[in-house]
Amino acid sequence: MASPDPLDAQTVLTADSTPGLSHVSSSDKESDSTSSNEINVRPADCAFGWIPTLAVMVNYMFIFGASNSYGVFSTYYLNDKFAGTPASTLSWIGTLITTFMLGGNMLTGALADKKGYRLTAYIGTVLCTAAYILASFCTEVWQLILTQGILFGMGASFLFAPSVSIPPQWFDKYRGLASGVAVAGSSFGGLWFTAATQAMIDNLGAGWALRILGILTFAVTGIMNLLYFRRVPAKPRKNLLELRAAKRLTFWLVSLESFAMYTGYWAVTFYIGTTAQQLGGTQQDGSNLLLVLNAGSAVGRILAGYIADKFGSINTLLISLILTVVIEMPLWMKANSLAPLYVLCALYGMISPTFISLNPVIVSNYFDTDVLASVMGMVNVFSGIGGLAGNLSQGEIFDKYDKREQFTNTIIFSAMFILFAALIVLFLRTHVIRKSADKRIFQKI
């Protein structure tokens, strides 16, 4: 049997310790501050933990489905509805979804820990639904920026904050697999969101596509929120934010890696459809490429979690980031037909998003489970900033340097930030090895 990851609960304090931030025993009781009657003694890795984990997976379909399938709207806005509008302007819509979803996590994560998972999630459900409905009546870009961008991003942040901390707190031995299964929901969501959105835009128009997505979001996430059970009860706390995390090097390394990855990650999702049209494809070809991207991502996120449980989360993350750069640059830059784009989407989808699965695992191995939503919220602020900076920069590069005719400079920008993220993870690995050696713990990472 493989030895435990030195970032696991048993060895957290030896790697990078601050009193009061260690793991809570698996014998803690389950509760949610929204309901004092839900108290059961359940250990980590029990079968019951898959119920809230699967609920998170379904909600991830709607939280990330919007951003993962935004390429359909992006292609429609860029080439049809707002054909004369600069790509850098239109990129604000999709960018702000991710920016507010992740950047708002500093507040929503703290609220989830302090006020309860379900209350926080239901606020998100209402805001996301309102965003879709209001966006369906918009006729100007700035209106879509406020509704489909900012308002939906805020709602997604309220849903995402409790979701990201549920699988890690229910599992120790299978933490990577559980996180991978949950996060795979975002890929499944992108898969059917992409197909459904394209079909609705073609047959019903963009307005009704947005309204139907709003109705589905309200109904499905409203039901799934009922299954958001905590295993570890929240501790009484005076401060809303878990600022002690900022005293630790590990926090800053994971945060910087998240910033770099989100800066470069979304280029393929946002612009692969336009690339297909530049090579003689249709809008449907762009939609099909996103389907392949999300299908590969669904498989890759689960597989990454399984591999991380066997060989270590940091090792798995480092290899995946290096492979992402190796795949993205030649396949996208040298593509002269649709065939290389399909290969790119399959491989990029399978390998690149492992950081989304593994970052929560790494963070959960270092910090208390009862403050996990707060700490992940702080990390995700950097993710949101990276998404904002990266997507706006890519739009500007596409307009000014690629002349809206090809994506060479955009691809280089994206790949270099992903490579930078790999270097940060390599430094994190070195840091963990050194700390483990200081404590005479010689285990895989």
TrEMBL record:
<feature type="transmembrane region" description="Helical">
    <location>
        <begin position="314"/>
        <end position="333"/>
    </location>
</feature>
<feature type="transmembrane region" description="Helical">
    <location>
        <begin position="208"/>
        <end position="228"/>
    </location>
</feature>
<keyword id="KW-0472">Membrane</keyword>
<feature type="transmembrane region" description="Helical">
    <location>
        <begin position="176"/>
        <end position="196"/>
    </location>
</feature>
<dbReference type="Pfam" id="PF07690">
    <property type="entry name" value="MFS_1"/>
</dbReference>
<feature type="transmembrane region" description="Helical">
    <location>
        <begin position="141"/>
        <end position="164"/>
    </location>
</feature>
<feature type="transmembrane region" description="Helical">
    <location>
        <begin position="410"/>
        <end position="430"/>
    </location>
</feature>
<keyword id="KW-1133">Transmembrane helix</keyword>
<feature type="transmembrane region" description="Helical">
    <location>
        <begin position="47"/>
        <end position="70"/>
    </location>
</feature>
<feature type="transmembrane region" description="Helical">
    <location>
        <begin position="90"/>
        <end position="112"/>
    </location>
</feature>
<feature type="transmembrane region" description="Helical">
    <location>
        <begin position="288"/>
        <end position="307"/>
    </location>
</feature>
<dbReference type="InterPro" id="IPR050327">
    <property type="entry name" value="Proton-linked_MCT"/>
</dbReference>
<feature type="transmembrane region" description="Helical">
    <location>
        <begin position="339"/>
        <end position="359"/>
    </location>
</feature>
<feature type="transmembrane region" description="Helical">
    <location>
        <begin position="249"/>
        <end position="268"/>
    </location>
</feature>
<feature type="compositionally biased region" description="Polar residues">
    <location>
        <begin position="11"/>
        <end position="20"/>
    </location>
</feature>
<feature type="domain" description="Major facilitator superfamily (MFS) profile">
    <location>
        <begin position="53"/>
        <end position="433"/>
    </location>
</feature>
<feature type="transmembrane region" description="Helical">
    <location>
        <begin position="371"/>
        <end position="390"/>
    </location>
</feature>
<protein>
    <recommendedName>
        <fullName>Major facilitator superfamily (MFS) profile domain-containing protein</fullName>
    </recommendedName>
</protein>
<dbReference type="GO" id="GO:0016020">
    <property type="term" value="C:membrane"/>
</dbReference>
<dbReference type="InterPro" id="IPR020846">
    <property type="entry name" value="MFS_dom"/>
</dbReference>
<feature type="transmembrane region" description="Helical">
    <location>
        <begin position="119"/>
        <end position="135"/>
    </location>
</feature>
<comment type="similarity">
    <text>Belongs to the major facilitator superfamily. Monocarboxylate porter (TC 2.A.1.13) family.</text>
</comment>
<dbReference type="GO" id="GO:0022857">
    <property type="term" value="F:transmembrane transporter activity"/>
</dbReference>
<keyword id="KW-0812">Transmembrane</keyword>
<dbReference type="InterPro" id="IPR011701">
    <property type="entry name" value="MFS"/>
</dbReference>
<feature type="region of interest" description="Disordered">
    <location>
        <begin position="1"/>
        <end position="38"/>
    </location>
</feature>
<dbReference type="InterPro" id="IPR036259">
    <property type="entry name" value="MFS_trans_sf"/>
</dbReference>
